[in-house]
Amino acid sequence: MSYDIVPKGATLNPRKFELKVPQQEVDEFYQLLKLSPLAPKTYENTRTDPNLFGVNHEWMTEAKNHWVSSYDWRRREDYINSFPNYKVQIKDDDGYEFDMHFAALFSEKQDAVPIAFLHGWPGSFLEFLSIMNLVRKKYSPQDLPYHVIVPSLPGYTLSSGPPLDKDFKTADIARIIDKLMVGLGFQSYMGQGGDIGSYTCRPLALHAGCKAVHLNFNMMIQPKNPDGDISATERKGLDRAEDFSERASAYAIEHGTRPATIGFVLQSSPIALFAWISEKFITWTDETPPLDDILDSVTLYWFTQSFPRCIYPYREYHGARTTSGLGPHSQPEYHFKKPFGYSYFPMELAPMPLAWVKASGDLVWYREHDRGGHFAAMEKPDVLLDDVEDFVKQVWK
Which among 102, 157, 369, 371 has the fewest CB atoms less than 10 Å away? Predict the structure, then answer.
């Protein structure tokens, strides 16, 4: 089963793409990894709880040993390449050309619903491969009810970065995603996202082609006169969000205020990159993902030099001179006027109460889960897929 028949109405000309990092780059990576030293033991890095001061020495030591001796990047490439992957040229309104990557499962049904699944940081399209795997096990290309489109956002992993001579914001990401979806022949489509993917869904919904949006992240400030009470579970979620803001958000301020510096720092050592990113996979999740899954993400970031190119969205909301200090989920101009669904995962880094989420758009579908965290597509792919399918059945006529 191929899932690779691009719709006839496409105006873009996507070309098949196969990921294969040159062997010399792989060899150089492993050499650098072996030579990258670990920090000495300290009081802080010998604490067992990563929520106190960050990743600990034992974790870093074991991870490096496994990365060097047992991890198989080529096997991961084979898995990625088992899905249809594409590159396509997309010209922006000012003539700047993006080389955009996306993975896809195209349906042969005429009425299939196109869905753009949008990742965040420190994620990538890899987050959604488990969902894509479930989809291709459940449906054939002939009866697949959806076109599953998973782009690499501009600057992330296999997509080229924004221009070097001007600013680029979340609304600009949304414009490129809209051009991708419409260019693939979808005059109507749906957006789904968490983290920066959810931020992107806000301006994406302003485009005519985007007919509905489902989110699993909706971090926002408390609205005026929220409609409804806050449950005990939601109160714990707000406590978690407050703890994140007070003790775990320094990375975002660094990304927003000194992106150039941290970009050089983390692209100089795979161990440094792993420490910075793996902390998030540990502390933002319900259960820590398998080490190999974390290494997949970090290794792909390394080979694509992704980190310095991909943290630009943080300047918009965590920079020194942001215009409002509000994220897009709290901005009135991005209030959803189209059908909006929200999945609540309790170990999200900032799970928002239903009463608050209602204030951010035309909420027509909601489901609360008792397990799962920030990387829902990676942690609970079957649960998130069920949510999206149920949402589509309700809103897509």
Answer: 371
Residue 58 lies in a domain: no
What the block records as the tokens of 390 is 């149920």
- The stretches in the chain having pLDDT less than 50 are none
Q: Is residue 106 part of a domain?
A: yes
The answer to whether 374 is a known catalytic residue is yes
The answer as to whether 54 is a domain residue is: no
Q: Given the residues 86, 156, 314, 344, select the one marked as catalytic.
A: 314
Catalytic residue among 178, 195, 286, 387: 195
pLDDT of residue 318: 86
Q: Sheet with 85-91: list strands edge to edge.
A: 15-16, 85-91, 97-105, 146-151, 113-118, 189-193, 210-215, 336-344, 361-368
Question: What pLDDT is stored for residue 326 in this prediction?
Answer: 73
What are the backbone dihedrals phi and psi of residue 167, each rounded to the nearest 5 degrees, phi first? -70, 160
Instruction: Give pLDDT, residue 319.
Output: 78
**What was the pLDDT predicted at 324?**
52
CATH assignment at residue 172: 3.40.50.1820
| Annotation says 314 is catalytic | yes
Q: Helix, strand, or coil here: 13?
A: coil
C-alpha distances in Å from residue 158, one per residue of 17, 54, 150, 254, 330: 10, 29, 12, 24, 31
Model pLDDT, residue 320 = 65
Catalytic pick among 251, 318, 374, 387: 374
Task: Specify the number of domains making up the chain.
Answer: 1
220 domain-assigned? yes
pLDDT in tens, 254-264: 999 999 999 99
Q: Rounded to an integer, what is the distance from CA 116 to the centroid of its chain?
A: 12
List of E strands, the chain = 15-16, 85-91, 97-105, 113-118, 146-151, 189-193, 210-215, 336-344, 361-368
Give the C-alpha separation, 121 to 313, whole Å. Answer: 10
Find the domain containing 305 and state its range.
Answer: 1-46+63-397
pLDDT in the model for residue 227: 86
- Type of residue found at 370: D
Identify the burial level of 95 via C-beta atoms within 10 angstroms of its C-beta, where 0-12 means exposed, 13-18 middle and 19 or more buried: exposed
State residue 331's pLDDT score: 93
The predicted model scores a pTM of: 0.96
